[in-house]
Design goal:
Elements: H1 3-13, E1 29-34, E2 40-44, E3 50-51, H2 57-65, E4 75-77, H3 80-89, E5 101-103, H4 104-112, H5 117-127, H6 133-150, E6 170-171, H7 173-183, H8 187-193, E7 197-203, E8 209-215, E9 226-234, E10 238-247, E11 250-259, H9 262-278
Antiparallel strand pairs: 1-2, 1-11, 3-6, 4-5, 7-8, 9-10, 10-11
Helix pairs in contact: 2-5, 2-6, 3-5, 4-5, 5-6
Amino acid sequence: MTTGAMIATGVATSAPAQAAPVPTITAKGGFVMNAANGKTLFTKAADTKRLTASTTKVMTAKVVLSQPNLNLDAKVTIKKEYSDYIVKNTASSAGLIVGDKVTVRQLLYGMMLKSGCEAAMALADKFGSGSTISARTKNFIGKMNTTAKNLGMTNTKFDSFDGISKGANASTPRDLTKLARDVMKNSTFKKIVATKSYTAKTITKSGGTRNTTWDNTNKLLGWKGTIGIKTGSGTQSKYCLVFAATRNGKTIVGTVLTSTNETTRMADVKKLMDYGFATL
């Protein structure tokens, strides 16, 4: 037998590469897909409805960025009602000051990085229709649900613009991942959620300027190609994360819902990222 034949035989009879072991995660639900073609890479209770906490804000951003003739530099005045809402609900805040003029772009950063619920309310008030804040925010939530339906998020219903649920704000890992795959096609959204820190220069009531810096709550940013997307946490929802990462030119998106704490949430997502890329 020639040397060439021996080499060829050796290649032909070598054992196939071992498939990556399916990871075990502590989160009650999880899902990962290939962003390019939507192929499922991992699933755990992917269609079970759960509270979504601040991952809800991904849809809020999607609805805002889908507005026709959107002007990201349009200014919004921070109303006392937004501040009152934060206090009443002990909600996460971007520290926006009543009377300040903040651009739509800045509100998106404040909502997605610092998870400011008053920023989410300001956007819902700005882009909803109606004669009162209550009517406009309700109309905006209606747009969130219409968008969810159009994206095929069949197990999703929103009853808030920020994830502070009135009892019916629920989605699934699969649905939120569908949303993530779609909205990451928007260059503005993609840039925002990949930003670790952002300083907004806002106009004060007296006409001066105020600098407010927001650090991203997503501590996974930058880890092995992580490019977003949004954290969430709450007493009932526990710890959630909608995530995306790119390695070697390939991108995966996914979601974990109801992790037990911040540490396990991060560990869960790292496992799912590594597994997702190993099985692409």
